[in-house]
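User: Hey, my collaborator sent me this sequence without any context and asked if I could get a structure. I don't really work with proteins. Can you help?
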Amino acid sequence: MTSAPRDDSSDRPLLALLMRLAGVGGFALMAALIKLASETGIQLAELIFWRQLVSLPILLGWAMLTGGIAQLATSRPKAHGVRAIYGFVGMILNFGGVILLPLAEATTLGFTAPMFAVLLSIVLLKESVGIWRWSAVAAGFVGIVIIAQPGGGHLPLFGAAVALGGAFMIALIATQIRDLSRTEAPMVIVFWFSLASVIVSLPFMLWVHEPLTGHQWLLLLGMGVAGTWGQVLVTMALRFGKVSSVIVMDYSSIIWATLYGWLFFATLPALTTWIGAPLVVLAGLIISWREHILARRAFVDQRQASGT
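Assistant: No problem. I've predicted the 3D structure and written it out in structure-token form, which is a compact way to encode the shape of the chain:
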């Protein structure tokens, strides 16, 4: 089914930025709790299952209080299916990156998503990319090499590859959510993704599940709540603002990751991360700025062509 065109008059840039900032805070807390839970022995499949299962009663309760469960119905099941596939693979890779790497490094490698978005726009949309965005991609790649130091760094290369794979999926997911947001409410998008993830992860969770302690249950509950608030707010941000505009708020997560890494794990980023991270962040900011400029030009050209 073709999505209906989105009314750009619904864009509220400041609100979108604030929502994205609050959502990123939720995801940062979720990442810290994922790492803490994994260190107690909880397996990845079970982390994914409980992360999504906790979301369902929250979303159902919210729906009942704001208009009824009927509002969770969708007329675009295929689009939700694609989003669920992207999201599930993305969760495996992003959770894996958090488990395998220090929080700050996993977060920094996740910032490469805008670089992958540029590459995807070339491959999938046949878009012409100019010197600004190519330079940003090159700078970001240099930053990755400095952080990971292939062949002799402090990071396991497998963990770095997993985190980069997660960033690639974030780029795909952002595009898919933007399309879904044209016709679907944020709560609907999050609900169907959570339900699909629970169904897919249940068989794996039953295979690896072991009795949990009270401390582990609290970590899982906190992880689910933090992840739900992050997912809802990040999705709502894409309803009120463009990807290229709101993604700038994602970089605030490096502050949270560094703080949580120090508080919970007594670790601080290595010197190479302090050197490479600014290059990766700068690359993302340049790409976001350039996307914003191009979008404004396209809007002006469209208005001129229509005579308005």
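In plain terms: Confidence is low (pLDDT under 50) at residues 1-7. You can pass these tokens on to your collaborator as they are.
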